Amino acid sequence: DLSHRIAASFGLRVHGVRPGLVPLVWLEGDAEWAKDLSGVSMEVRATVRGASFLENMLFTHRGVSGPVVLQISSYWDQA
To answer: Which of 7, 32, 62, 69 has the lowest tally of Cβ within 10 angstroms?
Structure first.
């Protein structure tokens, strides 16, 4: 909030905030099929709206994480 107020005080346009560099979590029903994959890591390509990254992805007990997921999360929008 402070950084947005400072930017606005300089006349810069301020846009809403949203999380970035975050893991993606399973919906409640999806966690069951993926539980045996927890701890497995593999190289994958993640693509969202033209952004694409080839890095490692890690399955966790709550969802997926790792470099590729953290990078692509900046482009993800739940729209």
So the answer is: 32
CA atoms within 13 A on the CB side of 58: 10
Please give the span between the terminal C-alpha atoms of the chain, in angstroms, as a whole number. 23
CA separation (Å) from 41 to 29, 58, 73, 76? 22, 4, 18, 21
Residues in contact with 25: Cβ distance below 8 Å, sequence separation at least 6, in sequence order: 62, 63
Q: The tokens of 33 are what?
A: 């099929």
Task: For residues 78 and 76, give the distance between their C-alpha atoms in angstroms, rounded to a whole number.
Answer: 7
The span from the CA of 14 to the CA of 37, in Å, is 41
Phi and psi of 11, rounded to 5°?
80, 10
